Amino acid sequence: MMNHLCGIGQSSSSLIGLICKKHTLNLFQFSSHRGIMNLCKVSHHPIRHLKDAFLRSSVSDHDSDMYKRASLSLYESLVAFGKGWATYSTGTAKQYHQIGGAANFRQTEPFSLILPRNIGNKSTKKKNDAESTYKILGSGMILLKNYLSISDQVEIVNICQEVGIGPGGFYQPVFLSGAKMKLQMMCLGRNWDPQTSSYTRYRSDGVQAPSLPDTLVSLVETSLQESCALTKSKDEIPLMSPDVCIVNFYTTTGRLGLHQDKDESPDSLRRGLPVVSISIGDSAEFLYGDTRDTQKAKKVLLKSGDILIFGGKCRHIFHGVQSIIPYSAPLSLLQKTMLRPGRLNLTLRKY
C-alpha cells in the first residue's frame, strides 16, 4: 500500500516522515489545512487509500496511542478537506490531478447558475429593456449596448444552466502552475484546455464538449452582420459562423488578467475572425489595450445585454476583467431566472 502511495522504493513506514520532511513540519503541524493539501499534491493518490497506511506508519514508527490518534485525525481531516483533489463516484475515486501538473477537475456537485427560490438575489438596478446603441472602440472593435432584450438574456441563461449542470458542464479551471482561475467555465463545440492552451474534443476528465446550440450561432451571425452595417465596412469586422463558445461565470469577486485569445487555428487568427462576447448579469469593468500593462489599458463597462465584438486589426488585443460590480444586474432578469450574483459571459469564435 505504502509503496503504491509514495512510489517504488519507498518503505511502508515513510509516508508521514517523507511529507513532513519535505515541508519542514512535525506530525501535529502537518495536520493543519496547508499540510493536508500539500499531502494531496505530493501523493497523487485517492484519499481513501491513506487510512491503513497512516495506521501502519503510526504503529511501526511511533508505537504509541498518541501518534495513532494523530494519524487517524489526520486521515479524517484529509477526507474532510481533500475533496478538491479527489472525488468519489460509486465507491471509486476519480482523479483529475495530473502528476507533474495542476488539477483540472470537475466539482463533486455541479455548479448551478440558478439560486434556490428561497434565497433570492439583490439588485438596485430596475431597468428592463432599453434602446440599443453602439460605440466603436477601435478598428474592428465595437460595443453593441443593450443589444439583447431581457427575454433573450433569460433564454441564454436557461441554455447555459441546462448544459452547465450536465456532463461537460461548469468546472473551475486550474493552470499548470496550480493557480485556479477565478471563475467557473464550460466549453461548447470544442474544449479549451488552460493547461495546454489548446483546443481538444475532450476535457481532461474524458468528457466531450457539449455541442454549440443553434440559437447562439444565429445570434452571433446576426450581430456581426449588424456590426458591419454600423461600421459601413466588411473589412473591419470579418463575418464568421462560430464553432466554439467558452462560457465563464464570474462571482462578484471574480476577475481575469489581461491576455490574448490566440489559441484558435492559424487560419482563423490570420483572417482576424472576431471574438463575440456576450454579457449577462452583473456589470464588469473590462480592460483592453495593446500590451499587458494594466496602467496603459483602456476601460469600458460591460452591462447585462451588451455584446462586445473584436476582430480584424483588434483581434489580438490584450483584454481582461478587472472587477464585477455587485447588485448591477437588471431586476427583471433576476426575477425571471434567479441568476446567482455575478456575471455570465459567453465568448464565441471560429476555431
Describe this structure in words.
By secondary structure, the protein is of the alpha+beta class. The chain has two domains: 2-94, no CATH class; 133-349, Sandwich (Jelly Rolls), CATH 2.60.120. The protein is 29% helix and 22% strand. It has ten helices and 15 strands. Strands 3-4-13-10-15-8-5 form a seven-stranded antiparallel beta sheet, with helices on one face. It has a four-stranded antiparallel beta sheet with strand order 9-14-11-12, with no helix packed on it. A hairpin with an 8-residue loop joins β11 (283-289) and β12 (298-302). α5 (50-61) packs antiparallel against α6. The longest helix is centred in the middle third of the chain and has 18 residues, at 214-231. The two termini are 46 Å apart. Mean pLDDT is 76; it is low at 1-103.
What is the CATH fold-level name of the largest domain?
A: Jelly Rolls
Rg over CA atoms: 24 Å
- Note the total helix count: 10
CATH superfamily of the largest domain: Alpha-ketoglutarate-dependent dioxygenase AlkB-like
Q: Which geometry do the CA atoms define?
A: globular
Strand tally is: 15
Poorly predicted spans: 1-103
Q: Give the percentage of residues in beta strands.
A: 15-25%
Per CATH, the architecture of the largest domain is Sandwich
